Amino acid sequence: MPIDLYQIAGSAPCRAVRLAAAAVGVDLNLKETSILDGDHLKPEFVKINPQHTIPTMDDNGFYLWESRAIMTYLVNKYGKDDSLYPKDPKKRAVVDQRLYFDLGTLYSSFADTYYTWIFTGNAPDQAKYDKINAAFSFLDKFLEGENYAAGKTLTLADLALVVTVSNFEIMNYDFSKYTNVQKWFARIQAEAVKYNEIEDNEIKAFKGFVDKFMKKK
């Protein structure tokens, strides 16, 4: 049976999960969930995820949320090999570090800057952009002399990070001076399984979401 993924169209974490699923050849049954309509607060949803966050996965009665946890689960259970998430402790630790970097630094800087702007109408101050610049500087350093974010092959770290970077691109953040990031970004877009198929429509959905709220300001 396909795995159910409760998702929001355009959501970066949901897109990352979909890329991970595509990479291991897992079919997802996408269940669109509207936060604006309160779908995530309905009793039947809270029953499977008390935190009522999106994305949430239902793998035949096994419920899991937090996108990076879902991504690692999919590879651990369904991956044909361990290239996306190595079993070697040191190699896996580097992938984990990059996933945590995405969660706590890069994606966090995006959310703090742009979601605040989208929902409140308060334009970002320089301090917020400084955090973004610092995050990109770190990522650029990680990629120095490397084709991938965590090792010599494409991993889950690349799939999580590429979606976050694409969000910055949507918001017209100029990262052209980070040449390592630019080269890596183009490489992962070309190599990630079903990248264009998944991202093209989802990016349009995210742009529509941004435009809808920014026009209200």
UniProtKB/TrEMBL annotation:
<dbReference type="Pfam" id="PF02798">
    <property type="entry name" value="GST_N"/>
</dbReference>
<dbReference type="GO" id="GO:0004364">
    <property type="term" value="F:glutathione transferase activity"/>
</dbReference>
<dbReference type="InterPro" id="IPR036282">
    <property type="entry name" value="Glutathione-S-Trfase_C_sf"/>
</dbReference>
<protein>
    <submittedName>
        <fullName>Glutathione S-transferase 1-1</fullName>
    </submittedName>
</protein>
<dbReference type="InterPro" id="IPR040079">
    <property type="entry name" value="Glutathione_S-Trfase"/>
</dbReference>
<keyword id="KW-0808">Transferase</keyword>
<dbReference type="Pfam" id="PF00043">
    <property type="entry name" value="GST_C"/>
</dbReference>
<dbReference type="InterPro" id="IPR004045">
    <property type="entry name" value="Glutathione_S-Trfase_N"/>
</dbReference>
<comment type="subunit">
    <text>Homodimer.</text>
</comment>
<comment type="similarity">
    <text>Belongs to the GST superfamily.</text>
</comment>
<feature type="domain" description="GST C-terminal">
    <location>
        <begin position="88"/>
        <end position="217"/>
    </location>
</feature>
<dbReference type="GO" id="GO:0006749">
    <property type="term" value="P:glutathione metabolic process"/>
</dbReference>
<dbReference type="InterPro" id="IPR010987">
    <property type="entry name" value="Glutathione-S-Trfase_C-like"/>
</dbReference>
<feature type="domain" description="GST N-terminal">
    <location>
        <begin position="1"/>
        <end position="82"/>
    </location>
</feature>
<dbReference type="InterPro" id="IPR004046">
    <property type="entry name" value="GST_C"/>
</dbReference>
<dbReference type="InterPro" id="IPR036249">
    <property type="entry name" value="Thioredoxin-like_sf"/>
</dbReference>
